[in-house]
Write a structure and sequence with these properties.
CATH class of the largest domain in chain A: Alpha Beta
Number of helices of chain A: 18
Low-confidence stretches of chain A: none
Mean pLDDT of chain A: 97
Shape of chain A: globular
Oligomer: heterodimer
Distance between the termini of chain B: 55 Å
Number of domains of chain A: 3
Largest sheet of chain B: 5 strands, mixed
Structural class of chain A: alpha+beta
CATH architecture of the largest domain in chain A: 2-Layer Sandwich
Number of strands of chain A: 29
Strand order of the largest sheet of chain B: 2-1-5-3-4
Mean pLDDT of chain B: 93
Low-confidence stretches of chain B: 159-165
CATH class of the largest domain in chain B: Alpha Beta
CATH topology of the largest domain in chain B: Ubiquitin-like (UB roll)
Number of helices of chain B: 5
Largest sheet of chain A: 7 strands, mixed
Helix content of chain A: 25-40%
Structural class of chain B: alpha+beta
Radius of gyration of chain A: 27 Å
Strand content of chain A: 15-25%
CATH superfamily of the largest domain in chain A: Aldehyde oxidase/xanthine dehydrogenase, molybdopterin binding domain
Amino acid sequence: MTWVGQRLPRLEDPRLLAGKGRYTDDIEVPGLLHAAIVRSPVPHGELRGVDTSEVDVPGAVVLGPAELAEVVVGRMPIVWHMPGDFQVDRPLVDGRVRFVGEPVAIVVAADRYAAEDAAERVYVEVDELPPVVDVRSALEPDAPLLYPGRSDNVMSRWETGDTAEHTDAVFAAADRTTSFRLDIGRVSGTPMEPRGIVAVPEPDGRLTVWTSSQAPHAVRDTLAAATGTPQHRIRVIAPDVGGGFGLKDHLYEDELMACVAAIRLGRPVKWVEDRYETLVATHQARGETVDVEVAYDLDGRLRGLRLRAYRDAGAYLAHFGGGPLFTMSGMVPGAYTWEAVRTEAAVVATNTTPTGSYRGFGQTQAVFVVERAVEVVARELGIDPVVLRAANMIGPDQQPYATRCQPVTYDNGDYGAALLEAQRLAQAWPEPPDDGRLRGVGYSSFVHMAGVGPSQGNPHVGLDVGSWESAIARMEPDGTVRLFVGTSPQGQGHATTFVQLAADRLGVDVADIELVHSDTDRSPYSAYGTAASRAIAVGGGAVVEATSALGDRIRRIAAEMLEAAPADIVLADRKATVAGTNVSLSIAEVARRAWQGWALPEGDEMPGLECRFAYDPKQYTFSYGTHVSRVAVDPATGVVEVERYAVVLDCGTLVNPTIVEGQVHGGVAQGLGAALLEEIVVDGDGQPRATTFLDYLLPVSASVPDIEVVLTETPSPFTPGGMKGMGEGGTNGSFACVVNAVAAALPAEAARDLVTPLTPSRVWHRLTGRS
Amino acid sequence: MSPSPPARAVTFTVNGAPTTVTVEDRTLLSDALRQGAGLTGTHVGCEQGACGACTVIVDGLAVRSCLVLAVQADGTEVRTVEGVAHGAALHAVQESLHRRHGLQCGFCTPGIVMSLVAAREAGTGLDDALDEVLGGHLCRCTGYVNIRAAIVDAWQGAEGSEVAR
C-alpha cells in the first residue's frame, strides 16, 4: 500500500488523548523556582527602575532592569528589514517603556503564588510621557515620539509593485475608478497553551531550555547572543506545543528574563504566561488601515489597484519587522490579472503591544483587500461577483504567472475551476427560512504563497535568515527508523504526515518510524521553524529527498546481498524483494548488514545506514482555492450568524486529506473570528480593554458551521513530493469570505468602507445609518 | 514580613487512588492536581473559568478545576483525564476524537474529554452534548467541526458498539 494520501488517524493522538502530552508547564525538575513578570502599568514613560523595598515574600528575588542588564550583553534581533529601517535590533530594556504590559523585571520565588505575591509589591518607577495609541494620532505633526531623536513615529516605509507613473497611466486610461477604506482590526492569535519557558542550568555548565516555541533553533540563537553564551552550550527543546499560529516564532523578552534569572541564580526557573499576559504582552497582529483605489472598465475588466497602507507596529518592530505588511503588498494582486498594482506602505509605532506574526502573515489582509475590491466593483457594475472574478482570473494556460509584484511568480493551477466548484456547492444549499433576517452570500478566491522559501531570494527582500530545511533519515540495525527534522509541530500532525512520506520511500510501516524534532541537540538546524505554511512543503521536501536517498542505499545493499540489480529491488511490506520474484530479504536483514559494515557494495562501502538532505526550494509554492459562505444578519440586533460554509482547496499532493481538512476547519474559524468577534481594544489612555476571554471573544462551537471541503490535487512542479503547504490558507480565505457575505447583506454604501470585526453594534449602525 | 501561608492537608480520591496533598487555602484544585498529585494531563488555559481546558469530574460533575479551591475538594472523588482510558484502550469519547481528527495541538482536549465523559455518564442527549457541553469549551485549532463529528459518533455508537464502554 501507499501511505501518502491515506486518511491515517494521527499517530500522536492516543498519547494526547490520555493526558500523556508533555507541554512546557508539565516539565518538573528538582529545585525548580517559579517566576512572575513585573510589567509596565503605563503605556509610555521614562523607566527609572523598580522599587523592591515593599517585597516581603521569604526567599523572593527580584531582577530589575539594572540586574538584567548585567547578564544581557546582546540585543533582541529583528530578522526582516526594509530599506532605511532604523530599528534593526533592540535592547532588552532601554530606559523607556512603550506599552502597558511591557516586561521590566522578573521575580523568582518558591512557587508561582509566592512569585505573584512578590511581583505585586514591586513598584515600577516611571516618569510618564503622553502616549500615542493609534496610527492616525501617531502621524500627527506634533505627536509624542516613541523614539527620541527621530523626526516622526514611522518605523518603516516602502513601495511595492508598479511605479507611480505607470499606475497613474493605467488609472487614467480606465473607464472608471472607485475607492474605499478598510480598517482591519487588531487581533491576538492566543493559542490555547500560553507561552512558557523552563531554564535549567546543568551541572556541566550548559543551559537546557524547554519552551513552547515554533522555532527552537531561533530561540537558541537569540538566547546565545543575548547572554553571550556559545550556541553549543545551550540546548532548546520545544516539547508538545499547544498551538502557535505565528506568535511563538521567536524568543520574547519575558522568556529571556527567565533564562537570565536561571543563569544568575544557578537554579532552574519556570515562567508560564497567564491569559492576561497573552492578551496584553504576547505579540498581536494586523491593525492595518488600507485606502484602496480600483480602476476598471465598464465591461468588467479590472485594470489597476492602488493602495496606501499603514500598519500599527505597536511599541517596536517585532521579530519579522515590517514583514507582514510587506507580504500583504506583495500578494495583493490575488488570483487576477491586473495592468498595474502599486502599494505605498508604512509601519508606524504607537504605545501599544507590538504586532507580529499571525497565521496568514499579511496574506489574509491581501486576500481581504483584493476580494473587497472585486466585490465593490461588481456591485457598482451590477455584475455577479462570481462572473467578474472568472472574467479577470489568471487562467491555467497563463501559468507560471509573473504578477505585477515581483518577485512573486505563481506556479500552476486552475483558479477558475475552484471558483466554479465553490459556486456549484453554494447553489446546492437549501433556501434559507423566511425569518426576517437579511442574507448575504460572500466569496473569496485566494492564492496563497506557501512553502517559504528559497533562501537565495531572502537577501533581496531584506530577510536575514535562510529558509531551507534538512532531514536526516536513519535506519537502525533492526529496520526501524528515526527521522530527524528541523521543523517543529504545534498540532499540525507532523508525527503522522512526515512519517507517511518516509514510509512510502523506505518500504516500512508507519509504526516503524519515529519523528525526532524540536530539540537543538538532536534535530537539524532550522532558522525559521514551523511557520509560513512551510513545514510540509520545505521540511517535507527534505524528508522526501533524505528518505529517497536512504531507500536507494537500502536497494543497493539488498541488491548486493541478493545478487540482483538495485533497480530491480522493490521496498515494501518491510521487505526488499527482487521485482517479479518471491526472492526477498527483510529490511531488517539489510539494515543489519549496513551496520555490520561488511560486504557492502563496491563504491558504497561507508558503514551505517543514514542519509541527510538539505533542501533549499527553488521557488515558492502557491496553494489556491475559493471559499463561499452564507450569513444571516438580524436587522434588530446586528448579530451575524454564519449559516453555510464551503471551501475548495488545491494544495498540491495531499499527504493526509483528513489533516488537511482539519487545518482548513481551524483556519476558517480563525478568519471568521477576526471577521466577526475578535478585537483587541485599547482605550484613549493606552490601557488594554480586552484582557480576558470574556472581553476577547474567540469563536465557540456555535460560531462555526459545518464546513464542506473539496480538495483537488495539482502537485507543485518544484517540491519533492509535490506538496504546496496550506496551514494558513483557511484563515486567508475565510476572513474576506465572511466579511464579503455580511457586506452583501448590507446596502451598497454601508458596505463600502468597513471596520473589522463586524460586531453586532457595527453592523447595526451600518444597517440603520445611526452613529 | 508576610506570615507564611498556612498549609493544610487535603485528602481525596483521585482516579480511584486515595491521595493527600498539602496546599494553601488559596491553592486551586487545578494546581493541586498538577503540582500536588503530579497529574499534568489537566491543563490550565485561562484561570478565568472561560476556556474549559482544566475540566475534571468531581463527584460525578464536570467542574472547572481553576474555579475550585483544593480545600473544597476535600473528601470528594476526583477523576482526571489520566483515569479515563482502560490501560491502552481508549474510552469511546477518546476513540471518537481520534478517529474523527477532533484534536490538533491537544491542549484543550483533556477538558473536552472530561466534559463529554461526564455528559455520557449523566445520560445527556446528543443535542445538549453538542450545544451545551461543547459550548463550554474553547478550541483554537479545530474550528470544532471534527469535535462535533466525534461527539455524534460517540453518542450514536453508545448502544452496543464495540467502542462503547
